[in-house]
Amino acid sequence: MTVAEVGVHDIKRLALRGGLAKLISQAGNSALRLGFVLIAARLLEPRDFGLVAMVTAFTAVLDLFSTIGLSSAAIQKSIISKEQISTLFWINVLVGVTLSILCALIAPFIVVFYHEPRLFWVTVAMGAGFIFNAAGAQHLALLQRQMRYVSLAKIEFSSQLASFCLGLGLALAGYGYWALVAASVSLPAAVTVSSWMATRWIPGMPTRSADIGSMLHFGGTLTLNGVVSYLTVNFDKFVVGRVSGANALGHYSVAAQLITTPVSHLNTAVGGVTFSALSRLQNDAVRFRNYFLKGYSLNVSLTLPITIFSAVFAQDIVLTALGQKWAESAIIFQMLAPAALFYGLVNPLVWVLFASERHVRSLKIALVLAVLVPAGCLIGLPYGPQGVAAGYSAAMVLWLVPHVVWCLRGTPISPLDLFRASSRPLVSAGVAVTLAYIVCAYFGPLQNSFSQLALAGGVMMAAYSSLMIFVMGKDFYLDLIRAMRTTSFSSSEKGEAEGVAISL
Questions:
Q1: Exposed e or buried b per residue across 126-144, where buried means at least 16 C-beta atoms within 10 angstroms of its C-beta
Q2: Residue 122 to residues 44, 54, 162: CA-CA distances in angstroms?
Q3: What whole-number distance in Å separates Cα of residue 413 and Cα of residue 294?
Q4: Which residues contact 217 (CB under 8 A, 6 or more apart)?
Q5: Does residue 484 form part of some domain?
Q6: 380: which residues sit within 8 A by CB, 6+ positions away?
Q7: How far apart are CA 106 and CA 296, in angstroms?
């Protein structure tokens, strides 16, 4: 059987099994990340989170260049040679070292910008993460090309667990914000070491004969897109940190992390698998459309109820998760919920644009958002961090329909397809959360936020599950369960998976 034939016949089986591994992994990763934030929030002060967020607002921009999009380019390429992947690896390493040095050079500027001397060594220390990210980028790309999602799941979970244990240990020992720095830097280090061990691939020397021009263009466009998008979606944090200081930014950044973590992790879980499959099906319009809509339906059916529930029960979530000293984060958390809903609905469209090589269009869309979002934040700035959050969300909501229409123009998927796929989960989530709110109102305020949250969550989950089985049909979920029942491959299946993904 040829590689192409294997791809056509087995992509669904490999993608669905990989999807189960990714979903389980991301559920575990989300629990770890939220657990770390919740425990660290009780051990540390909002100012500690604010100091690290000040640095991250700058270093995360540089981090987008650590792989310069070459890992995505390697995944998107239907066939890639040893010489090409080795050359990409060394380019990544060179960029990573350069960024680490650049990070040290901009440290004085960050100190002056925020008027905070403690940020100098924090910035220098965070720079080490660039090298670790760069050194593991192509190894992770190989694992994803081979659809070895079980291995990826183990790497991500174990690395996060190790880094979070280190951070919490330092927090207990009284190291303050350095505990957050240590957790941040150790994570990419653990991922890189684990990915090298999993692939057992040792890169060769770079060669000029390797034809990587198209991949450099693809990766460069993705990187520029990522930079513009990051600056756009984090403009609110720049503004809050600069105008209101570390304490306010601590409240703002933790609220933002709390509302976006479930959505981003679920999108990553479904998106990683779907992007790999769509890249193999980019020349088959019918299969491309069907695979995307199934992945999109699964994604929104998981993200929408979480986001809507978070908006309605924001205060109970914040008080239960973070404690009374974080009470002022609740309104920020609630104001950012519409933006999280926007991301849940439109982030999957990136799979379509990148897999079909419409990455230039994605960049143009990002440039439009780079105007709209800062404008919304600046309009809300006179009303403090809460106003910035409201302006941020308002800009996203107003842009929703134009965003969808522009993304899908010329693709096998229509805006009507997207509406049909999202309307049933959206209505079901709205009804379920409304029912949860009515039940809680009927019983009156309970003794504490945890009890209130437990009652509301139980009602919402029961109602939403019942409604989704009714409106989606039980066959939709039974098909997924049957296809993903076997999560491990035999030796021959592993060989097929590798054949689909890579020719070395």
A1: bbbbbbbbbbbbbbbbbbb
A2: 16, 10, 21
A3: 12
A4: none
A5: no
A6: 386, 387, 388, 389, 390, 391, 392, 394
A7: 40
Q: Could you tell me which residue, 307 or 72, shows the higher pLDDT? A: 307
Answer yes or no: are the C-beta atoms of 170 and 41 closer than 8 Å.
no
Residues 6+ apart with CB under 8 A from 151: 143, 198
Per-residue pLDDT tens digits for 125-154 = 888 888 888 888 878 877 777 667 777 878
Judged by phi (left if over 0) then psi (alpha if -120 to 50, else beta), residue 410 lies in left
Does 477 reside within a domain?
no
Tally of CB atoms within 10 A around 416:
9
Inform me whether the pLDDT recorded for 367 exceeds 70: yes
Sequence-ordered list of residues with C-beta below 8 angstroms from that of 485, at least 6 positions apart, any chain: none
Domain count, the chain: 1
Whole-angstrom distance, CA of residue 91 vs CA of residue 88: 5
Q: What tens digit of pLDDT does each residue of 4-41 get?
A: 333 444 555 555 555 566 666 666 777 787 788 888 88
For the ranges 111-120, 147-156, 323-332, 456-465, the lowest mean pLDDT is seen at: 147-156
The tokens describing 137, both together, are 């980028």
Q: How far apart are CA 441 and CA 424, in angstroms?
A: 26
CA 364/CA 471 separation, integer angstroms: 36
pLDDT confidence bin for 335, thresholds 50/70/90 = very high
Token pair for 302: 């998981």
Closest CA to 338 of 390, 297, 386: 390
pLDDT in tens, 147-184: 677 778 788 888 889 999 999 999 999 888 899 999 98
Q: Residue 105 domain-assigned?
A: yes
CA distances from 439 to 174, 189, 310, 461 (A): 43, 47, 16, 13
| Burial degree of 3 (CB within 10 A; 0-12, 13-18, 19+) | middle
Query: In this structure, what token pair is assigned to residue 157?
Result: 């979970």
The CA distance from 375 to 502, in Å, is 45
User: Tokens 């309104």 sit at which residue?
Assistant: 331
User: By residue range, what is the domain housing residue 137?
Assistant: 44-233
Q: How far apart are CA 170 and CA 186, in angstroms?
A: 13
Residue identified by tokens 């992994």 is 25
> In terms of residues, how long is the chain?
504
Let me know if residue 115 belongs to a domain: yes
